[in-house]
Amino acid sequence: MHAPLALYIHWPFCLAKCPYCDFNSHVRDRIDQTRFAAALRRELAWEADRLGPRSLTSIFFGGGTPSLMDPATAAALIDDATRLFYPTPDLEITLEANPTSVEAGRFAGYRTAGVNRVSLGVQSLNPHDLQRLGRQHSADQAIAALDLAARLFPRFSFDLIYARPDQTLPAWRAELRQALSLAADHLSLYQLTIEPGTVFEGMHRRGELTLPDEDLAAELYLATAEEAEAFGLYAYEISNYARPGSESRHNLAYWRYNDYAGIGPGAHGRLTLDRRLVATRRHRAPEPWAERVERIGHGSTAEEQIDTHDRAREMLLMGLRLTDGIDAARFEARTGMPLVGAVDPDILAQAIDVGYLVHDADGLRATADGRLRLDALLAALVR
Ligand SMILES: C[S@@+](CC[C@H](N)C(=O)[O-])C[C@H]1O[C@@H](n2cnc3c(N)ncnc32)[C@H](O)[C@@H]1O
Ligand code: SF4
What angle do CA 177, 220, 134 make, to 5 degrees? Predict the structure, then answer.
């Protein structure tokens, strides 16, 4: 059995820039599909060549908006990846899609290409809030796209953003219940974060957005988990809910700190190369990235070896997001450091005392209370 690998492929274009979003996404009048397809395929081949034989567990087309990609490009990349690596029998192939009607028209093509899971960016089912979030689709279009996804794909998930400006607890509960009635076995429910450099950040600074205060945000988070659980979807990660067994295998690879390759503009990866763990990163801007690939076969910028201390830090930051937490034996095998050696012992003891963390023979995990304040907890805990 070869070492496992998850593969991320970034499509950097969107129809419009949403005011809250700081992902590496760009708006163009015309996308040169042929050029970007060729560049992605070339960079994938380059990465596969240096990685050697690997067992491929998942492919994830993320963005930007991968549902703006020609289905033929997805098909070619899936064919390449399954030829260059050794696909596992249950290979998960996810594509992030936006629910406009034009994009839904391409769903059948993605299914034929081999995509077996779609993740739809619904964001809200409230028409007024969809507009405020700058979305290009209506609530009805989102519902129609979900219906189509359910018919075409073996698995589908969708994203909602909550803790939105002016959102009340009863309104969110009602919206979430409607969403759950449309869901299958997986949902991603994100609290709105105000990201630097976004339109929302400017509006927030000028006092033009009224966001839930800390108490309401906590109530919204707890209500989210309660409603999802009543429907049989469990929080397996801070923002991700699934029926047991239906978790996103690709995202689990990140949170468990396994190897993943990132192809395309701005994509990053964590790869074991010659027994060293290397952080990889691609040029962010789409056209300069493509030029670089055309010239030298890849758009990689500086790559760094990750030392023991940083591995431990990264694995803690990722692993404590998971409800199951971090397995002590895996932690030591992956980082070369025992779990207890990687955290501040006083903070660990205090966090266990107040019920934020549990530490036992299996490893370390955050409780629901701990996950509610995970950022602050991690900042104090991780050395
Ligand atoms: C790469 S993006 C989206 C994919 C697709 N382009 C879309 O918009 O539907 C992944 C998800 O991150 C979430 N997201 C992006 N920015 C966010 C923010 N500032 N706060 C909370 N969630 C955010 C959205 O739910 C989004 O669907
Ligand atoms: S949320 Fe999605 S559609 Fe909107 S700008 Fe970000 S990546 Fe593009």
Answer: 75
Residue 173 CA to residue 260 CA, distance in Å, equals: 36
Looking at the DSSP assignment, which residues form a beta bridge with residue 235? 241
Report residues whose beta carbon is within 6 angstroms of any ligand 2 atom.
14, 17-18, 21, 23, 25, 63-65, 98, 121
**Closest approach atom of ligand 1 to CA 123:** 25
Q: DSSP string spanning 67-109?
A: GGS-HHHHHHHHHHHHHHSEEEEEEEEEEEE---HHHHTTHHH
List, for residues 2-32, the tens digit of each pLDDT value: 999 999 999 999 999 999 999 999 999 999 9
Six-digit token pair at 380?
């104090």
Ligand nearest to the CA of 142: 1
Output the six-digit token pair for 317. Answer: 């930051």
CA of 240 to the centre of ligand 1 (A): 13
CA of 24 to the centre of ligand 2 (A): 9
Q: Say if pTM beats, i.e. exceeds, 0.85.
A: yes
Question: Across the beta sheet with 363-366, what order do the strands follow?
Answer: 326-327, 363-366, 357-359
Cβ-Cβ contacts under 8 Å for 120 (sequence gap 6 or more): 96, 97, 98, 99, 142, 145, 146, 149, 156, 157, 158, 159
By the 10 Å C-beta count (0-12 exposed, 13-18 middle, 19+ buried), 132 is classed as middle
Q: Whose CA is nearest to atom 16 of ligand 1?
A: 21
